[in-house]
Amino acid sequence: MIDWVSLTIPAAYLSVLVGSLATFSSLYRKRKAAQSAALEPWFGPHLQRDIYLSLLHLEPEPGKDKSPTVPDGVLKAALLQRATEDIKRILEIRNSKQALSNLLQRGSVGDDLWQRFLRAEKEIEAELRDVVQEANALQADWGQTIFQSANEIHHNAILREKLNAIQAQGRADREWWDQEKATIQSNFMKELGEGEKENAKPAAAPGTDKVGSDEDAVIVEGGGPASSGAATGSKDFVTNTDYTLRHKEFEANNATKDAVNGTSNTQKQQDRASKFDLSQ
To answer: Are 85 and 48 in contact (CB under 8 A)?
Structure first.
């Protein structure tokens, strides 16, 4: 005969154990969900998505039953802007994942930051699927190429930002150089004006030099035409002396050449005479 009393005790124990585990699991999941919801989102509000959804689900105006119809071109443009923002977020997640993982392994960041990142990654995956579905709904097979177009738009925007920054820096540099050039010109004109003023001072009269001392008179005479004439005469004397020495050197060289030529001619004549005597 089966003893039901002895079997009820293990059954009750198992039921209590399973119930406690289920309760703990549900409480733990609710707590984790509450913590995840309380965490600050990784990205800010998705403004482009909100604009697209507001255009897609326009409410009717007061007193009208139908909502206004939005053209497909406007919806496509809004969806393309939404995909462009998604491209920015995808690139940020890809660039941050490896670095954040390394920091988490080293213990430099907490689990809360990692949970925020995983939550953002899941949200962007769901966002991409939603964009593809919306693109296929607006135009057939557009979901396969919408992100390529969005990527081109994103890179074009980056190039425009860089170009605008370069142009702004160029304008700032141009203004600085204009100011610097104006300052240099003003300083140069001031120095030039001061130099002209010093050169425009009246020179001393010729009669005043005689009143001074003998040394002043000597200095004045040294700077006059006589000194220039003496200097010119000394230059002419040096030039004439140099010419005379060169002429004498030329004559001596010519005399040496003539003597050598004469000696060679005499030797030739003697050789001819000796040959003539031997022949006789």
So the answer is: yes
First-to-last alpha carbon distance for the chain, in angstroms, is 180
How far apart (Å, rounded) are the C-alpha atoms in residues 206 and 213? 14
Helix (H, G, I), strand (E, B) or coil at 209: helix
As a whole number of angstroms, the longest Cα–Cα distance in the chain is 180
Rounded to whole angstroms, what are the CA distances from 110 to 98, 124, 147, 230?
A: 15, 22, 33, 98
What sign for the dihedral angle of Cα 128, 134, 135, 137? positive
Separation of CA 30 from chain center: 52
Instruction: Tell me the CA distances in angstroms from 274 to 173, 260, 264, 277, one per residue in order.
Output: 100, 22, 16, 5
pLDDT in tens, 97-127: 888 888 888 888 878 888 888 888 999 999 9
The model carries a pTM of 0.53
Q: Place 15 in a pLDDT band, splitting at 50, 70 and 90.
A: confident
